[in-house]
Amino acid sequence: MVRDKDPITRVSEPVRFKPRKRSFWRVIIRMFGLIVLIGAVLVGALAWAGFTLSASGPLAAKKIVQIPKTADRLAIATQLQQEGVISGTRLFSAAALVDEQLRHAHLKTGEYEFPANASMAVVLSMLGRGDVVKYKVTIPEGWTSLMVVNRLNEQEELDGQVSATPAEGTLLPETYVVTRGYPRDKLLADMAAAQSKILENVTAQIQPGSPVKTKEDVVTLASIVEKETGVPQERPEVAAVFLNRLKQHMRLQSDPTVIYGIVAGAGKLDRPITKDDLDSETPYNTYVIDGLPPGPIANPGKAAIEAVLNPANVPYLYFVANGTGGHAFASTLEEHNANVKKWRSLNGSADPALSVKPAVAPPTAAPTTAPLSNTVTVPDATPPANPAPVATPKKKLKKPPLP
């Protein structure tokens, strides 16, 4: 018997699809399109951010804003929005973060004056540079240390209390630039450091044969020169007068020293000098004492110090007001008396009290001398109705305003 053979089951092979080449390019095109889209979005976002950052801000007028020292980036942005300087905080904070990362430009705190319609870009730039409001504190030449301290105490922009009044002559009169909150003691230390730098090599600059020998002598005489004249070009001549008198052992007879002996650091005498004042025995009365007073009577400036170190080469021993704000100088008593007479006629005064008073010279001094300037003798009870000036006019010291 013949058996049928087992039927063979044939399984068809799976259909294999070959990738079409154009599918690869479709992926590339889609990726490129996505990149273009993302780029377009980024460009649009950057364009919007740039436009917004550079657009005019909401401030209608300039405004001063004090940003606390403890404020961080978000706190600064929030305060600026509340003050009406910027219109929003998110973009401002993001731009500030980018500046920190890329340019290391951290926002700085302090007092700022933002202009009207300041854009966010301008505000960011100001905070990044630290363009805080600056204040000028001007100390005139010839002010006493107490006057300087009083001036600083009146400055509301400064901070802290003055621990002690500096010694006379240790501060450099100058204009100092500070920011709000600058410590008063720190500013005084800056003034002292500036004066110390000026006097650093002053001893080596003293001319041979000069009667001033030390740094202290230079500052003391410079303070007298500073108080005696407000005309800058006269300082070398005034210094020469005092140096010539010291060389000849003549008393200085400087009215500002008499005033300082009476009012000390207050710096001003609210009445004319009397004969009793000139005869009073204070350590600073150079009508009574020989040589220099025990210390400076004010804080001299650089020009007065330079005048003492490099005085004019003149033989003058006297000077008196010339009626035009300056002084007339003389080498002899006769010349000086003639200048005084001329000064009287210019001043329109015939008061006999303007006669020159003989000076008292030390025992070792041969010549008898006269005061540097005319002296007005005023009765102790009631002064005359129109007293003549006591000495040479001084520059009037006024409190300089801050900007």
3D structure, described in words:
This protein has twelve helices and six strands. The strands form three sheets. Strands 1-2 form a two-stranded antiparallel sheet. The chain has a two-stranded antiparallel sheet with strand order 3-4. The protein has a two-stranded antiparallel ribbon with strand order 5-6. Helix 7 packs across helix 8 (235-247), helix 7 (215-228) crosses helix 11 (302-309) and helix 8 (235-247) packs across helix 11. The N and C termini lie far apart (132 Å). It is elongated, with a radius of gyration of 40 Å. Among the domains are: 63-129, 2-Layer Sandwich (Dna Ligase, domain 1), CATH 3.30.1490; 134-198, no CATH class; 214-354, no CATH class. With 403 residues, the chain is mainly alpha-helical. 39% of the residues lie in helices and 7% in strands. The protein has helices at residues 21-54, 73-82, 90-103, 120-129, 145-154, 184-198, 215-228, 235-247, 255-263, 275-279, 302-309, 333-347; strands at 63-67, 110-114, 134-138, 175-179, 318-321, 327-330.
Name the beta content range. Answer: 5-15%
* Helix content, binned percent: 25-40%
| Helix/strand order, N-terminal first | HEHHEHEHEHHHHHHEEH
What overall form do the CA principal axes indicate?
Answer: elongated
Total strands: 6
The total count of helices amounts to 12
* Helix-strand category: mainly alpha
Query: Largest beta sheet: what is the strand line-up?
Result: 1-2
- Cα(first) to Cα(last) distance is 132 Å
Please tell me the overall pLDDT. Answer: 82
Uncertain segments are: 350-371, 373-403
Radius of gyration: 40 Å
Largest beta sheet, briefly? 2 strands, antiparallel
